[in-house]
Design a protein that fits this description.
The protein is mainly α. The protein has 6 helices and 3 strands, in the order H-H-E-H-H-E-E-H-H. The chain has a 3-stranded antiparallel beta sheet with strand order 1-3-2.
């Protein structure tokens, strides 16, 4: 059984590899990391208002506008108006724009699927329970970092 230090190192290497993959994928798509994350959010959610996108990415409204401009110019998203409140800008993935993204992340998905397939169904349930619980924990930790940076702590 691995020691606590060995476990910590294994986990750090895992997180670094995931982060490195995100950076490489963003670069392959011609995007910055924040743009890649925003595009992932839009892929998962379908569409978000510019305010929601700003809150979820931690960007100011001005920076979010510039991010949307860049994604729109690259053909990844389009702006529409909210049917209920025409003052709101809704950002949605452009039709078929995510096919290129799928090609970029396909190899990682394939490799990870092969690894997960090597686990029993019970172990897979544990892995997905971890993913389900860890993602919000990382988002909260990211928000804590943003607050501390913003507040000068």
């Amino acid at each position: 059984m691995a020691s606590p230090i060995e476990r910590r190192l294994v986990f750090r290497r895992y997180l670094d590899a995931v982060g490195l993959h995100g950076l490489a994928a963003a670069a392959a798509a011609g995007l910055h990391a924040t743009e890649w994350y925003a595009l992932s959010l839009l892929d998962l959610e379908g569409s978000l208002t510019s305010g929601e996108l700003s809150a979820r990415t931690g960007l100011t409204t001005g920076a979010t506008t510039r991010l949307i401009d860049r994604l729109e110019r690259a053909g990844y998203v389009r702006r529409t108006t909210d049917a209920a409140d025409r003052r709101k800008v809704v950002v949605e993935p452009a039709p078929d724009a995510l096919a290129g993204v799928e090609a970029i992340v396909g190899p990682a998905r394939r490799h990870i699927a092969e690894i997960i397939a090597g686990y029993t169904p019970e172990q897979q349930e544990l892995l997905f329970d971890y993913f389900t619980r860890a993602a919000p924990a990382y988002r909260e930790a990211s928000e804590e970092i943003r607050r501390a940076t913003r507040d000068g702590k």
